[in-house]
Amino acid sequence: MLLSLLISLSHAADADAGKATYDVLCSTCHGATGGGDGVAGASLTPKPADFTDAAFWAERTDEGITKLIVEGGMANGKSPLMPPFGASLDAAKTADVVAYLRTFKPAE
What is the pTM of this model? Predict the structure, then answer.
């Protein structure tokens, strides 16, 4: 746990690296452009989060998004269809994905 914290504190999040991870792990459900419209997402109920929707960002922090990625939806009172990625992503890669997700946030 301490190692993860130290990595996350010393790692400058890289949205480009996050895109590579997102494309492999997330786009199938959340879509290539983050609209919640991925191929697998079409058959899911509830639908995957739409990262291009201002309402999504109104209630989310980087810490909360990180927690969702690491622990999955069920552990956070969200969709049980959102799997946990804590076993497959280290703190640095998770921070990169969060940085990439922020690129979908609409301008205020």
Answer: 0.88
pLDDT by residue (tens digit) across 46-80? 999 999 999 999 989 999 999 999 999 999 999 99
Residue 107 lies in a domain: no
Q: How far is CA 34 from the centre of its chain?
A: 10
CB-based contact 3:81 (threshold 8 Å): no
Coil, helix or strand at residue 12: coil
* CATH of residue 37: 1.10.760.10
Residue 108 confidence class, pLDDT cut points 50, 70, 90: confident
In a domain, 32, yes or no: yes
Domain count, the chain: 1
Residues 6+ apart with CB under 8 A from 78: 68
